[in-house]
Amino acid sequence: MNQTFQALFLSPASPSPAPAPAETATRAGGPGFGRGALALLLSAHPAPALAVTALITALAVAAGRDVFGSCLVALAVLTGQLSVGWSNDRIDLARDTAAHRRDKPLVSGEVQVRSVSVAACAALVLCAPLSLANGAAAGGAHLIGVAAAWSYNLGVKRTRWSWLPYAVAFGLLPAFLTLALPGRPWPALWVVAAGALLGVGAHFTNVLPDIDADLAAGVRGLPQRLGRHRSRTVAALTLLAASAALVLGPPGPPDAMGWTGLAVTGALAVVLCLPLGTSPDSRLPFLATLGLAGADVALLVARGTALG
Fold first, then answer.
1. To 5 degrees, how large is the angle CA 158–CA 160–CA 163?
2. Cα separation of 8 and 179, whole Å?
3. How much is the pLDDT for 162?
4. Of 3, 180, 199, 258, which residue is the least packed, with the fewest Cβ within 10 Å?
């Protein structure tokens, strides 16, 4: 735990570049509270944080949580996601600085290091009671998932096991929802498998656009080791497997929506496995995997009533 807080609060070992104009202005109080708050928010990767929060909240509603319970789920997931996003930018500060990532508020100096560190720790502290308010078992499942995401930031992403935190975190999300329902039922095996596969597919999808930059920075997770083409094939196959679990896993024959979703994801998977859009600058593989993941999310929400 001490190493975690050192990673968050201590400056990188390598010499830092001279402060950017925005950083100098920040220290002098120039940009004002509004600009600093916006920069702090952007450091948390708000788009994926809000997307995951919206998805899990929709699943909570579909699974039968009432308004209060769904709000508890939303707050727990949001604080967990914000803590992961802030810790990611703080821990990667030295690497982002070396790569001249001026799109990162920490690198450009629009927000101070300590502000991001405090925000990450505060969000993590808030996440614990909000998660446990859903019940000890449900809260524990969510906190294990958040811990897995932090482990990714703290170094697992540089190993061949980079996919594992995603599989654990996404696979446990259905348990976070069902263990808070009356009777505390465990989620069905098919939805746990679908969640884990969706998480692995999301990992490979997220890494696809940055594989070359990651390799240059010494980040060698499993996607970087496999290379661009094989990684997009793995993304396609895992997301297609998630679709199959979501369509064929629930009891009874699949409905029309299920077959349609499986057909769409199958077609997208074929596109991804073909040697198309092989240029490093091509957005086709990334957009196709996003479409595949979106179809899986729609199927997951549609199956929400059967999570238990």
1. 90
2. 32
3. 97
4. 3
Helix (H), strand (E), coil (C) string for 60-111: HHHHCCCHHHHHHHHHHHHHHHHHHHHHHHHHCHHHHHHCCCCCCHHHHCCC
pLDDT at position 57, please?
92
Nearest to 191 by CA among 294, 290, 278, 301: 301
Q: Exposed, middle or buried by CB within 10 Å (0-12, 13-18, 19+), for 95?
A: middle
Q: How many CB atoms lie within 10 A of CB 286?
A: 17
Angular region, 64: left φ>0, alpha ψ -120 to 50, beta rest? left
User: Please, are residues 49 and 85 in contact by the beta-carbon 8 Å criterion?
Assistant: yes
Q: For residue 244, give the nearest of 298, 190, 169, 205 by alpha carbon.
A: 190
Quote the pLDDT of residue 275: 63
Sign (positive or negative) of CA dihedral 279, 282, 284, 290: positive
Structure tokens of 295? 């179809």
Q: Which residues contact residue 167 at a Cβ distance below 8 angstroms, ignoring those fewer than 6 apart?
A: 196, 197, 199, 200
Most confident of the ranges 21-35, 94-108, 153-167, 228-242: 153-167
- Amino acid at residue number 265: T
Task: Mean pLDDT check: name the lowest of 95-99, 245-249, 267-271, 289-293.
Answer: 289-293
The alpha-helical segments, DSSP class H, found in the chain are 2-9, 21-27, 32-42, 46-63, 67-91, 93-98, 105-108, 113-132, 136-153, 164-178, 189-207, 211-216, 222-226, 228-248, 256-273, 284-302
Buried b (16+ CB within 10 A) or exposed e, 44-67: bbeeebeebbebbbbbbbbbbbee
Query: Tell me, what amino acid is at 124?
Result: L
pLDDT at 6 over 70: no
27 touches 117 (CB < 8 A): no
292 in Cβ contact with 272 (< 8 Å) = yes
